[in-house]
Design a protein that fits this description.
This protein is mainly alpha-helical. Helices cover 64% and strands 0% of the residues. The protein contains 26 helices and no strands. It is globular, with a radius of gyration of 25 Å.
Length: 564
């Protein structure tokens, strides 16, 4: 009987196990599967508009819409708040491109990229951080998206907003919020089956729809208010007795803007590896990640200001403003129709932003932890289902301190980004040996028992100086030493440069083998002829026969020889 059970277990195990086409270099083992190998040219389908759409998801959303409110409430003027946003969004695009270049050049993602820095086993340290963040942020995004779904349902059925609360009083939420969460989660689920190579149509649809919705909302507000309203004229109004002058608040604002996007910066290569060429990534990132991101903040500011003139109150949160626009469902049918159109646009963007930025990203990270059984789709499903385990209604409505800590997680991520940049650009000269990233034998990336202690030490030293500031900021301790706050207000940059510089020093004092080496032949069918020539790599199709049928040297070999 035991033999029979073992046999059945092995059968099920074999069916669940992933299998790749080894003729296309898609071997599946403990370090590799189809979604982790360097992407071949036929799978690199993203052009500039893909990246425009990708960054649009992080621009045309509620969080970015509300960004100016944070700085205005701290006492800064409108112009100063917008200056923070312009500089901050530019730095996000710049840091993202720095990290993503490894994916553009070698076509590997964050999961694999960390193996040559941290070691094969050490790479689990940054992976676990991102898996945790993906789980939590996916749940929170689903909950926030549920609020937009609730607005849509109120626009369709006004009685929805007045439904009886059927949940126990012990739960920090109401029945209408919970139903909205369920609807948002269920409607998002089918998007998990879209592979990243085919994201163009969703990007196109969400970008156009959401942009039209936001512009329409601004035009309506300006038309109804017959002007921009008083909020746009807000000047410097530092609270009486404030410990901080304008310069420090500007520094803190830039640090917060960049740091809040640090999770997306770290895994830039997960998506840059899908690029047809580097120009597609750079154009899409600058045009949307920077320019569109700034414009959305401006649109949100103008609309909120006009809304203040209309209603006499400031509504920074779009769901609150939308509910007010239709008088919580008691407004006219025309008002409810307009609100539904606008809320659906926000909801759609939140839906696909969550799938792409959290679920799919989480799927890639989980695939790196268990390549035998988890690919991107399975990992995305696991991440999405985990929303019910995380219970976002407890986090968003109750645990405000936890959310603040989560938003400050850049304290730990910026040193990680510094390691990635220093290793790839300075120590390795943008050269890596792909074949050593998928094996524990004869590899330069095994270090000490699979862990590069230099990276671990440099990473810890990057966040130790700023962790004290994080603690006192979360606790709101006004009696804490001023220096802790000052360091915390520069946490992203201190963590980045501290870890980067220390990592370089440690590698100079304790050098490792294989720095700057790369495979002389394209072993995975990764590169086009032109790419191979630029890298000094022999293309896979020409490794056994350098001559064509006419007896002349092939184009690939000629280009390779010229490069040499």
């Amino acid at each position: 009987m035991a033999v029979g059970l073992r046999s059945r277990f092995e059968t099920v195990k074999e069916k669940v196990r992933l299998h790749g086409d080894e003729s296309r270099h898609e071997q599946t083992d403990q370090w590799c599967n189809r979604d982790l190998v360097p992407l071949p040219p036929n799978r690199r389908t993203w052009g500039w508009f893909h990246y425009y759409g990708f960054w649009t998801l992080s621009s045309l959303n509620i969080t970015n819409w509300q960004t100016p409110s944070t700085f205005l409430t701290e006492g800064l003027s409108v112009s100063q708040s917008m200056l923070i946003i312009v500089i901050g969004r530019f730095m996000i695009a710049a840091f993202s491109t720095v990290v993503a270049w490894c994916g553009l050049r070698w076509h590997i993602g964050f999961t694999i990229q960390n193996r040559f820095t941290w070691g094969m086993r050490g790479s689990y340290i940054p992976l676990l951080q991102r898996v945790l963040l993906n789980f939590i942020w996916n749940a929170i995004q689903c909950w926030n998206g549920g609020r937009l779904a609730a607005v849509c349902m109120t626009a369709l059925w006004p009685s929805y907003a007045k439904m009886r609360n059927f949940l126990p009083e012990s739960l920090p939420t109401t029945g209408d919020e919970f139903v909205g969460f369920i609807v948002f989660w269920v409607l998002s689920t089918p998007l998990l089956w879209i592979p990243p190579e085919k994201f163009k149509i969703p990007f196109l649809f969400t970008s156009i729809y959401s942009a039209l919705g936001m512009i329409s909302m601004m035009i309506w507000a300006l038309s109804t208010a017959k002007g921009v309203g008083p909020l746009m004229n807000t000047g410097v109004a530092l609270p009486e007795g404030s410990l901080w002058n304008v310069s420090w608040l500007l520094m803190a604002g830039i640090n917060q803007t960049v740091g809040s996007n640090s999770a997306g910066i770290t895994n830039g290569s997960d998506f840059s590896r899908y690029a047809r060429d580097w120009k597609a990534y750079v154009i899409g990132t600058i045009s949307s990640g920077w320019i569109t991101g700034v414009l959305v903040c401006l649109v949100g500011l103008v609309t909120t200001s006009a809304g203040q003139k209309i209603y006499g109150e400031v509504y920074w949160n779009p769901p609150d403003l939308l509910m007010k626009m239709m008088d919580n469902g008691d407004g006219s049918s025309a008002a409810r129709a307009g609100v539904f159109f606008l809320a659906f646009g926000f909801c759609l963007t939140s839906m696909f932003e969550n799938i792409c930025g959290n679920a799919v990203a989480g799927g890639i990270d989980l695939a790196g932890m268990c390549p035998h059984y988890i690919n991107i789709r399975r990992g995305a499903i696991i991440t999405f289902v985990a929303a019910w385990i995380v219970q976002p209604w407890q986090l968003v409505n109750k645990a405000t301190t936890f959310i603040q800590v989560l938003s400050s997680f850049s304290v730990f991520l910026s040193p990680l980004i510094g390691l990635m940049a220093a290793d790839f650009y300075i120590l390795r000269g943008r050269k890596i040996r792909l074949s050593h990233l998928y094996s524990t034998k004869n590899t330069s990336y095994w270090y000490w028992n699979g862990i590069n202690w230099r990276a671990a030490l440099a990473w810890v030293c990057g966040w130790i100086p700023t962790i004290g500031g994080l603690v006192v900021a979360v606790e709101g301790d006004t009696n804490a030493p001023r220096g802790l706050y000052e360091i915390y207000y520069m946490a992203f940059f201190i963590g980045f440069f501290t870890s980067a510089i220390l990592f370089i020093i440690l590698n100079k004092l304790f050098p490792v083998a294989g720095m700057g080496e790369y495979d002389e032949a394209d072993l995975y069918g990764t590169f086009t002829v032109k790419e191979a020539a630029n890298l000094g790599v022999i293309p896979v199709d020409f490794q056994t026969d350098a001559y064509d049928d006419s007896g002349e040297l092939s184009l690939a070999q000629e280009m390779f020889d010229k490069k040499e």
